[in-house]
Write a structure and sequence with these properties.
With about 280 residues, this protein is α/β, with parallel strands linked by helices. Helix content is about 45%, strand content about 20%. Bound molecules: ligand C2E and magnesium ion (3 copies). The site of ligand C2E has 23 residues, from strand 2, helix 2, helix 3 and strand 6. This is EAL domain-containing protein.
Length: about 280
Amino acid sequence: EAKKNGRGRYQVFAGDMDDLLLRKQKVEAELRKALDGDGGIKLAYQPVFAVDGRRILGAEALIRWTHEVHGALPAGQFIAIAEERGLIGELGKWALTEACRFAVTTELPWIAVNISPMQLRDAGFAEQVASVLSEIGLDPARLQLETTESVLLEHNDTITSVIADLRDSGIRIVLDDFGTGYSSLSYLRRQSIDKLKIDRSFVRLLDEDKSAAAVVKALIELALALRVEVTAEGVETDGQKALLVGMGCHQLQGYLLSPPLEPGQLLALPGVSSANQERSAARA
Ligand code: C2E
Ligand code: MG
Ligand code: MG
Ligand code: MG
């Protein structure tokens, strides 16, 4: 029987092997149903801020699945199952389409969508993204795609050319969870990317001691040396924020500034909805 863990969240991966296999099959079937439009899958949007902590530069789409029995499931877990069961292409396309449809109704400079490294191994991926954008009418310059370092580790010509095609079309490529993988400096130079996001596990270290802070400083300096943008994720305290700004970090994201929001909540923030701007212009 599946149990809830301490935080009260349903854990797909807990329990013995037979249970695990059965549960994964069940999750797969339920995920297919949700993708067919039973309404359980949604996107939340977490804004990304300038270093003043006020100006919104863009927002990241984060998938949410509320299971009818188990409630909110951790994204990392059902995404791993989708990858394992060959559903990630479909799930990824749904998220991309949904996020772009939302972005086009806003004044947000850009929207960031997470993509699985598996999607980048599909030679048709760049074309698929281009057709979603043109159908919706979203400028490619307003789309960022976040992926993890494991992509850079692969000596894979398909991935390299898919990334090049995406960038040629004006889409920006972001390396997520930076610092947690094994990407070497030579890979970072060879694969062209536009932004690094420092993983939350490093940002958390900032509260600990000086030597831990030196690691974060080195990651930021690496980004600056590569002339790419750098975002800190998981910023939770004023102390972390002050240190990051002092180190030259460009962008901040985290609970201190804003948690992931429902679309309506994001639209209510200043500078996100054109309706808001018209209202404030009328007031002025
Ligand atoms: P990520 O892209 O690195 O996203 C950051 C995660 O940290 C999110 O968890 C976010 O809710 C959480 N977070 C943000 N600020 C804070 C903070 O200040 N403190 C703490 N403790 N956490 C914070 P979430 O939404 O559970 O997503 C987990 C991961 O699942 C994401 O990590 C991303 O890798 C993946 N993911 C989410 N949506 C998608 C998607 O549409 N497609 C794919 N392929 N992966 C996705
Ligand atoms: Mg991300
Ligand atoms: Mg991340
Ligand atoms: Mg992360």
